[in-house]
User: Which sequence fits this backbone?
């Protein structure tokens, strides 16, 4: 599937998968999140990508450095709360200069019901920017393909460390209370 | 502080890398990265000067990318303790070409020699084994080090883990290059990858 503007409201994870495949991404470390569940399923069923469950998100940053030394590209899947776990390990990116792309499902915004998600969700973008990672955002399904294409191109071709925030408006706020 | 029955870290690392052939060696932040350099600088040495807790995961990423290449992580007890979860991640992936060896002096040697958790109950071999790294052992003789060094070249039987109790005496500081981009690109070049 090529990037286009016709992505329906439900098949944006497939659009992400297609972009990652097109950019020859091989290692997909992740800490599970409901917003990433369909993409993770797709990756685990892939013959070219290896899904690698982590115990904590910073493992994924180090893994991607090793993958690059061995000639492979990776992408890190996590939710916004995991970004804080990565901070020190993000220092490897400018030092070792490997391609870094992460896709972050957002919590703590747009209709959030859980106050405990709000502090880290509110600082996610700032943490990335202070750490030298450029931030792009997709707020609706229609813009996912273009944003992913731009993010993957600058991360893998221009070695620009990049995070794509997949907004809670896109993935849908969890509803436990009214 | 020197105990007669403990191995010398430099002897251990020299034995590990003496006949390294195509091994990629990753040294964790701290003395272990210096030990690797002391055994002889090499295009396939991955020296870490930061990213504490990340050595084993860098090894995993490299091992998965190059499944026919022996990948050896040599790190310290403090660095390994900070990445304890990576045992579980590696135990799940089971890369047959990945070996991890911890030089366990039960100390944070770079920061003043404060005792680490392995000086008390923490048992890295037990953790590794219970996380699914079946070939996990404690090593106390140079003969066992040499046997482990040989096994590193078998890229069909890993992952494997060894914990070696080493003397905490200070050794001469031998510092490798601190230029991370050079370190990575030198490894990539040696593996046949072009610059982007």
Assistant:
């Amino acid at each position: 599937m090529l990037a286009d503007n016709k992505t329906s409201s439900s098949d944006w994870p497939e659009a992400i998968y297609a972009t990652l495949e097109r950019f020859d991404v091989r290692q997909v470390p992740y800490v599970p999140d409901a917003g990433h569940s369909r993409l993770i399923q797709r990756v685990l069923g892939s013959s070219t990508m290896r899904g690698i469950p982590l115990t904590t998100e910073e493992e994924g940053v180090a893994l991607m450095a090793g993958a690059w030394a061995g000639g492979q590209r990776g992408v890190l899947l996590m939710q916004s709360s995991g970004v804080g776990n990565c901070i020190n390990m993000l220092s490897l990116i400018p030092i070792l200069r490997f391609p870094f792309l992460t896709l972050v499902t957002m919590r703590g915004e747009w209709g959030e019901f859980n106050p405990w998600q709000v502090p880290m969700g509110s600082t996610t973008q700032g943490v990335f920017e202070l750490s030298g990672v450029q931030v792009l955002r997709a707020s609706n399904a229609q813009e996912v393909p273009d944003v992913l294409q731009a993010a993957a191109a600058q991360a893998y071709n221009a070695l620009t460390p990049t995070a794509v925030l997949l907004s809670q408006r896109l993935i849908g706020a969890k509803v436990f209370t009214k | 502080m020197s105990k007669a029955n403990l191995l010398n870290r430099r002897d251990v690392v020299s034995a590990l890398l003496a006949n390294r052939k195509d091994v990629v060696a990753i040294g964790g932040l701290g003395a272990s990265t210096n030990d690797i350099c002391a055994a002889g600088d090499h295009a396939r040495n991955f020296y870490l000067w930061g990213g504490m807790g990340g050595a084993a995961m860098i090894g995993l990423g490299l091992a998965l990318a190059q499944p026919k290449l022996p990948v050896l992580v040599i790190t310290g007890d403090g660095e390994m303790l900070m990445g304890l979860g990576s045992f579980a991640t590696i135990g799940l992936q089971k890369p047959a070409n990945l070996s991890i060896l911890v030089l366990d002096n039960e100390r944070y040697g770079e920061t003043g020699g404060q005792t680490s958790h392995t000086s008390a109950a923490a048992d890295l071999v037990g953790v590794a084994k219970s996380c699914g790294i079946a070939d996990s052992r404690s090593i106390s003789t140079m003969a066992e080090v040499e046997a482990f060094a040989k096994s590193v070249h078998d890229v069909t039987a890993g992952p494997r883990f060894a914990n070696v109790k080493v003397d905490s005496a200070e050794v001469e500081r031998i510092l490798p290059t601190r230029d991370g981009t050079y370190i990575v690109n030198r490894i990539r070049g040696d593996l046949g990858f072009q610059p982007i």
In short: The mean pLDDT of chain B is 96. The radius of gyration of chain B is 15 Å.
